[in-house]
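Bit of a strange request maybe. I'm writing a small parser for structure token strings and I need a real example to test against, not something I typed by hand. Could someone generate the tokens for this chain?
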Amino acid sequence: MNGFKTTMLLAALTALFMALGYTLGGAGGAVIALLVAAGMNLFTFWNADRIVLSMHHAREVDDASAPEFVGLVRELARRANLPMPRVYIVDDPSPNAFATGRNPANAAVAATTGLLDLLTREEIAGVMAHELGHVRNRDTLIMTMVATIAGAVSMLANVGLFFRGGEGRGPGWAGILAVLVAPFAAMIVQMAISRTREYGADRAGAEISGNPRALASALAKLQHGASIIPGATATRVPAAQQLYIVPGRSADSLFSTHPDTDNRIAALAQIAQEMGMPVSSSAIPPAASVPVTRRRASALDPLA
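Reply from user aminoacidic:
Good idea to test on real output. This should exercise your parser:
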């Protein structure tokens, strides 16, 4: 069902973009707009992971610099039947995590030092399983495409506001209405797709980690922590909030990038009942354990 919803919303966003191009420039305008969007998508397809990781000043870690954290991700990737992703830590006190990459073979997952400070071993496993759920569901590629098309809609609308024909004619009332409404509509479609994918990643994370209750507990802690300690990148680039497992603020509204955290927790409680949980902490082997704080786990953080 999530896949169907995402397909329909992505189709709606693409149709909106084409309609705006046609309104402003007729058939030729629609073709030109499509070519520009295709070029933007192609560039983003190959470079999205580098852009996102650089934006967060993320540091890649390995078995030598963060053996327990990397070991945990490796175990979860094995459970999810995924290739081992690159693993990063972001030196940021705001607790959060994200995934990026165009496909499972080129994926990367990252957690902030604030998250590693705050959560228990089981909760960290639930969060990283959620991010691997995004990778398995190929949400990182979908959200990259959506963000690119939505950005192209806004760009084209801005151009349309200053559009003039050869004899000084403006785009007309229909065109003016289109360029005013299109960015707003694109934003709503983009956020709707993001919310749809979060529920899917929560379910995947519960299945991969085997402990939906730990993921629910992590969401509650992360939502509170992220709301009182805004992430440095999200403060500079508000659009980055859609990348994270929780935003600074969360509510089921037209303007939220994520479902309400309480609703996500309720859905995870239902999944736990379906799975006959709660599951004991043995769902993740002790060898892949992650200590609760940086003071007890300096090996997790190469910046410590």
